[in-house]
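Because showing beats explaining, we let one protein speak, sequence and backbone structure tokens together, and leave readers to judge.
___
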Amino acid sequence: MRTRLFLLAVMLFVAGPLVSMPAARASEPVTLFAAASLRNALDEVIAAWKAETGKQARTSYAGSSALAKQIEQGAPADIFISADLAWMDHLQKAGLVKPETRSNLLGNSIVLVSPKAEAKPVEIGPGFPLASLLGDRRLAMADTSAVPAGKYGKAALQSLGVWEAVEGRLAQAENVRAALALVSRGEVPYGIVYATDAAADPNVVIVGHFPAGSHPPIIYPAALLAESKNPDAAAFLTHVKSPKMKPVFEKHGFTVFN
């Protein structure tokens, strides 16, 4: 009898307690690296994703150049949406995106903005007197050497023949939203930002539109990153590109390509 009780005790010890296995962990949120100019629209798109699926997505908004460099350095992300083709091309050449998932998502335009209290229309064309309009103050732009909004703005000013007159009088910011903030707070009289950014800030007014032919087309490409292992990433990217999200982007002033 004692032998049988001993054997039973050993069997129970080996088997362990009779408890149910823990439920599988919920999948991690999709991590999205996106150009700063997309903040308002993508926040709505993410809210719609959560309402529809119950799943989370988290975002890092910054200049496309800064985000691309972070991805190169191994920052964990699932999706990249750039404000220009060049930074997406850069990552694709480095083998850091899944090229079969890449597509051109959105379009935009650049505008000249002014603080609401100071706003007066400016006719933008070849040789327009931007330097005179600035007086002894500065022009806000995103970093013209790396950030897409700054590069588009510089290209436009060069093609219109006014770059040399203002290049020494810039207030350059790390991204386009930071440039917008300088105008919004009245720290500078003018800034060059995307039309969508201007629409997002009630403290600024669009005083002029840059001709589309004065700079390269503004295109936002999107793609999954090569290192992404998140099973929800592809579905989230499909959600971003879905027809039901088109009105969200259009409401914020983007042109939708899909």
